[in-house]
Design brief:
Two copies of one chain form a homodimer.
Chain A: H1 2-18, H2 25-35, H3 42-53, H4 58-82, E1 87-88, E2 91-92, H5 94-97, H6 100-119, H7 126-152, H8 158-183, H9 188-215, H10 218-221, H11 227-230, H12 236-244, H13 247-258, H14 264-277, H15 280-301, H16 306-320
Antiparallel strand pairs in A: 1-2
Chain lengths: 324, 324
């Protein structure tokens, strides 16, 4: 796992150098601000790790790794406007700190910068890399739109939900790994396996997120337990419960979702009791394990030294056993 | 000029084919709507014309031409949010017809689609083409930010203004022509000359726009005469007047700009009288001609058959002698 930490440090260092402040400052200050808010840098680290797995050089892939991180942060800047999220990583979101217009335009520049970083010094596989990146970028936007649509929809199925988290979250993990592999001159089969590894791991990760919201240790999750329940968010847990509940349980659940008299704590308690009765936590973990196992089987299929693949498996396990 | 009309028709036809409607419809309907609102298609037509000038084939450059048009329309979709513009080409703007969120996200997808179109089937000069495109795309965003900053600034100089219109409007004309030239395998010198031709023509075009707002034939301009004056917009005319006015004229101008009692028609009449006294229209036309002549001198320097260059000169003249 040391390798991942090294790559995270490398990315952090490069991002700091990269955020030169230019005119107009209304455009470039929010970009520097966003890129310095922190973040786990998991995507660029995975890109570098995949590149290394196939014998690629760090310095060849670093620019693409930064591209992925800048792109990811672009989506956060625009999503925060759309979701009216005042906070990002404990600080004010860009639209809140400056304005919606500033967030729109500096986000646009970040999207363009990500393409610039991707194109930098990379000519042999540029067309292939751009192809994966652009397809993914459009999918991430589609995922965000589906997510917004779900808020007002009453007919979201489990399949709709899984498709949404695949688009909004998981494909970018797959894309990061595949670009790293392509830059490391992996063949198409290996590149596709590592993409599927990342995508399925991403879905499993998001399902874990849903579980942790209600069943995580509040001290470790770092946010209010049951936030999704309080806001009636259509997570895997709620959608699964709605799918299988019937009779009195269904009535109780509907009451909790529509009641205006229940205070937040009681709502969380009641919904959790219903979920427990329906065994929802275990069903979610079963679903998560399906995606996790698919991810690992793709990892196993990659034609690369077993000892170099170990770090991916260890990293995957740590994501699944995390407490926050 | 027939050639340009043919290219405009070609672009229109291709755009119609290209706007397939997919899911989620909240994302793809606004894109199809925007691309079918019309527009002069000048940028893609110029790209194809530049490509043809150097012997390039239309089918090789068509995708890049569409990329430029999609990019241009992306900027309009996002600008209309920022400028709170309810109308675009006589129809509702996207943010007004749908919502700000829809306009943000469908605009984002258009920006990504423009990169997709640019990368399509183009591998030999992809890196070079992307380089010009990305640099320009960032500049266009910078221009929009400067334009917004100018609204609340009291210290905008003529140089600031010329730089702003260069970034916001002119560089995309230069970029369109240069990409066409590169795809037609023009050498770097010729590609740079045609870029400078387009950029300078673009600045001249924008100055003409400023003049037409107040001095155009209302029947032909198709919008209210003096709209810029009414809104105190910092155009070349106003900035030049503020630069050279002194004494009583300066006082009168300041009164017109800050008065809350003047009705719109009187304000336009009074400001026009001040401009006439200061000979502003002629000064603007002189400035415009400087840029126009620079454009033409770059056109002259391009090493290409004179008879093939004629259409660019004729087109430039038509832009300068236009009445709308």
């Amino acid at each position: 796992m040391q390798k991942i930490l090294d790559y995270i440090a490398l990315v952090d260092e490069a991002l700091k150098k990269n955020t030169s402040k230019k005119d107009p400052k209304e455009l470039y200050e929010p970009i520097a601000y966003t890129l310095n808010l922190g973040g786990k840098r998991i995507r660029p680290a995975l890109l570098l790790l995949a590149n290394n797995l196939f014998g690629g050089k760090d310095e060849v892939a670093l620019s693409a790794a930064l591209a992925i991180e800048v792109f990811h942060n672009f989506t956060l800047v625009h999503d925060d406007i759309m979701d009216e999220a005042p906070l990002r990583r404990g600080s004010q979101s860009v639209y809140k700190k400056w304005s919606t217009n500033v967030a729109i335009l500096s986000g646009d520049v970040m999207l363009i910068q990500s393409i610039q970083l991707l194109s930098k010094g990379n000519t042999t596989s540029l067309s292939e890399v751009l192809d994966v990146f652009n397809t993914t970028a459009v999918q991430v936007c589609e995922g965000q739109q589906f997510d917004m649509n779900f808020e007002s929809s009453t007919t979201v199925s489990i399949d709709d939900y899984l498709k949404m988290i695949e688009l909004k979250t998981a494909v970018l993990l797959g894309c990061s790994l595949k670009i790293g592999a392509l830059l490391g001159k992996a063949n198409q089969t290996n590149a596709n396996h590592i993409y599927e590894f990342g995508k399925n791991l991403g879905i499993a990760f998001q399902l874990m997120d849903d579980v942790l919201d209600l069943y995580g240790d509040p001290k470790k999750v770092g946010k209010r337990v049951g936030g999704d329940v309080i806001s009636n968010k259509k997570t895997y847990l709620l959608l699964k419960a709605q799918e299988i509940a019937s009779g009195k349980i269904k009535k109780d659940l509907d009451f909790c979702l529509s009641s205006v008299v229940l205070d937040d704590a009681s709502k969380v308690e009641k919904v959790k009791a219903i979920f427990n009765e329906l065994n929802i936590k275990q069903l979610a973990i079963d679903e998560m394990n399906l995606f996790y196992n698919t991810a690992i089987s793709h990892l196993d299929s990659i034609d690369a030294p077993a000892e170099k693949k170990q770090v991916f498996e260890r990293f995957s396990k740590s994501l699944m056993n995390r407490e926050n």
